[in-house]
Design a protein that fits this description.
Its main location: membrane. It holds the Pfam family Sulf_transp. This protein is mainly alpha-helical. The protein has one domain. α2 crosses α3. The protein is globular and about 50 Å long.
């Protein structure tokens, strides 16, 4: 499996996530955890709660359309695994988010920026699990 190195796209995405995180904290006093935003969208506590979550999710989903307007091309997305593997991966992520009390954006971006010890432990755990998974999939299973 070949990995494409995309430093400018990755840096741009990271900067946008950082800006969104800071603005959400400044404007609403909320931590930007993508799974928490999505979960709250389906069970909002108020109309205002629903509105900011809907606007944030719409912005996240409309990224490819913005790229189409800027470049004239939709981004190429390659998913090198089967649908059952995607479903299993989604289930594992959902369980991890539940037991970890948040996701990589909540802990890794916002929590670490706030110097939360819990977020440092969670982010280190995410990274270790990622390294092990990539090693097993690429080198032991040969996928």
């Amino acid at each position: 499996m070949e990995t494409t190195f995309t430093p400018f796209a990755s840096l741009s995405g990271g900067v946008l996530i950082g800006i969104a995180s800071v603005l959400l904290m400044l404007m609403l006093g909320r931590v930007f955890g993508a799974t928490g935003v999505l979960a709250g969208f389906f069970s909002p506590s108020s109309g205002q709660d629903f509105s900011w979550r809907a606007a944030l999710l719409a912005g996240m989903v409309s990224g490819p359309l913005a790229l189409l307007l800027l470049t004239g091309e939709m981004p190429t997305v390659q998913v090198p695994v089967s649908y059952p593997m995607l479903m299993i991966g989604g289930l594992i992520v959902g369980v991890g988010v539940t037991y970890g009390g948040g996701c990589t954006s909540g802990h890794g971006v916002c929590g670490m920026a706030r110097l939360s010890p819990r977020s440092f432990v969670a982010t280190i755990s995410f990274m270790i699990a990622t390294f092990i998974t990539v090693f097993v999939v690429r080198h032991l299973l040969g996928a």
